[in-house]
Automatic annotation (TrEMBL):
Its cofactor is (R)-lipoate; FAD. Keywords: Disulfide bond, FAD, Flavoprotein, Lipoyl, NAD, Oxidoreductase, Redox-active center. Binds 1 FAD per subunit. Belongs to the class-I pyridine nucleotide-disulfide oxidoreductase family. The active site is a redox-active disulfide bond. It is an enzyme of class 1 (oxidoreductase). Transmembrane segments: none annotated. Coiled coil: none annotated. One of its GO terms (biological process) is 2-oxoglutarate metabolic process. Its EC number is 1.8.1.4. This is Dihydrolipoyl dehydrogenase. It catalyses: N(6)-[(R)-dihydrolipoyl]-L-lysyl-[protein] + NAD(+) = N(6)-[(R)-lipoyl]-L-lysyl-[protein] + NADH + H(+). One of its GO terms (molecular function) is flavin adenine dinucleotide binding.
Amino acid sequence: GPVDLECEMLVLGGGPGGYSAAFRAADLGMRTVLVERYPVLGGVCLNVGCIPSKALLHTAAVIEAARALAAHGVRFGEPEIDLDALRASKDKVVSRLNVGLAAMAKARKVELVRGSGSFLDPHHLRVELTVGSGQERSGEVRVIRFGQAIIAAGSQAVRLPFLPEDPRVVDSTGALALRSRPERMLVIGGGIIGLEMGTVYSTLGARLDVVEMSDGLMPGADRDLVRVWQKVNAGRFDRVMLGAKAVRAVAHDKGIRVWFEGADAPSEPQLYDLVLSAVGRSPNGARIGAAQAGVLVDERGFIAVDGQMRTNVPHVFAIGDLIGQPMLAHKAVHQGHVAAEAAAGHKRWFDARVIPSVAYTDPEIAWVGVTEDEAAAQGIKLGRAVFPWNASGRAIANGRDEGFTKLLFDEQTHRVVGGAIVGTHAGDLIGEIALAIEMGADAADIGGTIHPHPTLGESIGMAAEVFEGVCTDLM
Ligand code: FAD
């Protein structure tokens, strides 16, 4: 059939993976087209994920910090919350970044096609243009012929089939829309997304129940970190139901009535003003006509790739949430760069040793590399050093000394293989440990690096010194 547009590189999906891949491909001289069904770039992360959640978490953290100042002799009184203004300020953060991405695409001459793409064959994509995006008309179709392609179609929230269709039952996107201030809120799924959103709503006044199927909150993080977080946050929760699940829900005038099963769960159904379902995300691999391009998609919708991010069709790459866990923006960005460089003929592989994880709760929890619980489960013995923040001048001055910094070392070489931090700004601190692991640094390298005093980052150097035996273990 007729072709409307030709390019060397087609990128399907304008999230962090897709725009990073498109920008890198263009920088490497490839004529690049980026197809995105939404009118703005940024994908889940920018529009309904990382960024709006952090804008709201920032507000929540400032409210909590203001409350905590009472103990230092400064009282502000109860905050007055204008939900419309709060929502607008969050939306402004997002749109500033949308504008920035559009400018970066334009500067690189990446051609944006706004519409839903589906493969016709290994070298053609059919795009149904999105309504209201410039000169295009609804239902109009464009066919793009491409030399190579990078699929970055991302993921979407998993829907629990028993939850009723009701404005008081939301996924993370609905929770970020901030339509109401509930009094009683249920969070289904005690992972990072559920607990971040729970933190926001509880600071705005909601009492929280959380139900989690596994035996602990924030699966994946070491339990010693989660314990610190849980102690600080105990006051936010009415019930923490572990090894339990919501099994039935019915919408009433007075709220959503939810039934539970499990050891910690109440036998009576409970009534909530808001129910947030945050039980995971499923990949969009089955919705892009991958089979027409010959690309294999597994039964869950994931696409398998090799070390260069190539699918089973060598000129078609896939990156980001679509190819598996961890579903994180910085992983998608890194993979986008690898795919674009490999497509341009560079000898580039995904060989990152570690991908950091962060829960931007209060306090934050961050970890990278090998975790202690994982190592213990596999019977691997590691060197361990912990620096408790109640020995940190800066943490004490901040009034937030509940955290700790932990480093894990290979016992033979003393090289750092893992790190974990619970405490304020843990997410900003964990990058140093990621760099240390990537560079093969050992305890003496980290301990011998002069860290500025007094900072929270100093705790990383102190932990390394603990391991070197300069101090004794302080915990
Ligand atoms: P996506 O961001 O999902 O982008 C895919 C894009 O492809 C979308 O824009 C979609 O519209 C488009 N698309 C899909 N199919 C088609 C099609 N057929 N045609 C055209 N366009 C299509 N990660 C972090 O690292 N840090 C965080 O703090 C963080 N917070 C989060 C908070 C929440 C509430 C959520 C939900 C997620 C969060 N994440 C976070 C995860 C992060 O958002 C994802 O890992 C990241 O967005 C994945 O990027 P991606 O490029 O693979 O896909």
